[in-house]
Amino acid sequence: MFVLTEMKDVIRVNPAHFHLSLLESITSLLNRKLANKVVLNIGLCIALFDITHIGHSYIFPGDGSSHTEVKFRYIVFRPIVEEILIGKIRSCSREGVHVTLGFFDDILIPVNALQHPSRFDDTDQAWVWEYPKEDGEKHDLFMDSGESIRFRVTSEAFEESLPNKPPGSERTVQVPAPYKLIGGINEPGLGLLSWWETPENDDADGSEEQENDE
What we know:
By secondary structure, the chain is mainly beta. It has helices at residues 22-34, 202-213, and strands at 2-13, 38-39, 43-58, 66-77, 84-93, 96-100, 107-110, 118-121, 126-132, 138-143, 148-158, 179-184, 191-192. The longest helix has 13 residues, at 22-34.
């Protein structure tokens, strides 16, 4: 789920940071620049792991800041395809089940990747797995918001960030998520954790107590 990624950048340290050591300044500025940001084709940056190289610093004419090339390793969230994760249902729509990991929300389990057969309940705004019982009847298993869910990552998608709209612009543009995951639960063992929990065998416990009494 988390990977260590080698990266490099040129960090601009303005004079306001000159009272700190160069290492402290670079560490602070790297986290400010990258933490909780999505880097195209890299993933969601979580935190700086270490700095492996600090190059020479340069001050260019007309600019009082120093510019330093650094190489570093960053902890990045980027699950591999086919990895199994556990999250919570954020909401349901006709598009599918939307899942969150707490720190990452852009996860969708589309309709064709749900347990079959499933239907969307407009009243509860939830997907329902129509689980077939041995007698031919169906038992409705609701996928409610807040429930823990186990899913398999089936694909990922990155979107390039668009420039910010000009100040005063009235037109609202829906910006796609810069990084999103597509998952699936249409196989045994996946779906709500409660579906696969083994209920306590009360009868077995009662029999054991009866034997002990005798």
